[in-house]
Amino acid sequence: MTSADVTVLGAGPYGLAAGAHLRQIKGLDLRIFGEPMEFWKSHMPEGMLLRSPWAASHISDPATALTMDAYRDDLGAPIPTPIPLDRFVEYGLWFQRQAVPDIDRRKIARVEKSDDGFLVTLADGGQFRSRRIVVAAGIGSFARRPKEFEGLPSELVTHVSDQSDVRRFAGKRVAVIGAGQSALESAALIHEAGGDVEVIVRAPNVHWLGWRARLQKLGPIAKLLYSPFDIGPAGVSRIVAVPDAVKYFPRSVQDAFRKRALRPAGARWLVERFKSIPIARGRSVQSAQIAGERLHVRLDDGSSREVDHVLLGTGYRVDVTRYPFLAPELSRSVAQVNGFPTLTAGFESSVPGLHFLGAPSAWNFGPLMFFVCGTDFAARRLARHLAIPLSRNGSKHHADSR
Hints:
The protein has helices spanning 13-22, 38-42, 68-75, 85-99, 181-192, 211-215, 220-225, 236-240, 243-246, 251-262, 328-332, 362-365, 375-385, and strands at 3-9, 30-33, 108-114, 117-122, 127-135, 157-159, 173-177, 196-200, 279-280, 285-291, 294-299, 304-307, 309-312, 336-337, 340-341, 354-356.
């Protein structure tokens, strides 16, 4: 049976960044699995624009040479801002071809613990052993679906991550649930595609981002309050941009940072596109029942809607036990808090050799790990902790990652 020192699972921004950095470690037997940028290609609405600014959209490589700026120069054409989804996907694929060209696109069926590390089983039946596993599998498995919609068919209810083509809703009445960027932008795209859409939000108002742009007029003061990544409100933005700084705050304060930075909100450039879209504020869904070929949705104020489809823009809830490729006994053995694994400085979980990047690492490293800009901190820190020196007799010894 073949073996590897480190296996990276996932080929989105975090998997690609990890692969780019780990490939620089001499003597490391590395394998990377995944379909490059798959979640971004197939599970985000076509026509979407990135909420993150240009400075927060670079995937990390060791030399900082494969940035959005480098891609634009190589493309020989301007890239508008906000960055269109399709352009970002193309950037990710361009990054992959240059930084990690040897990705294995086969699917991973199962990862389980073994005496010398982990046993990895591929969907085609092949197997190999790996001393370490780096999970960079994104948030697709964490889609949050409220219990009111459990058991309903996908013809009537889907999550925003379930499809990319909003044109399927042309001529249909659609209720979008949620007040975050994915919900609001999906509603705008459905409206522009010819759908009759209404947004239903629990909060009394939709929170529109944009204070940073207004404060730009203050010059240096704005830079003191906001990081270039523009994650979180004034002050908090600066703190969460430095993951090593977050850990020095009390746990309750860290949790407050995460909630403030990740609270549902929409980019201000969506406001103009919402002029003709009704929003039911301060309302929640009490029940949803099939009514012929439609769905009868009742709200907490007693009103109801007959719709052709409900689109759930209800976000994601991290829970590493929901990764389908991790054997249940393995994922359950990972020490967790509210679904987040507790990690060491090297992104290693309580299971020796099992590492998590991206959103699952936010409990220890803060909300930056939910965004592309977090790839630089995560990939550099991981590579530093997984450097493998060669002994005089040629055998490999793992550096202490704790």
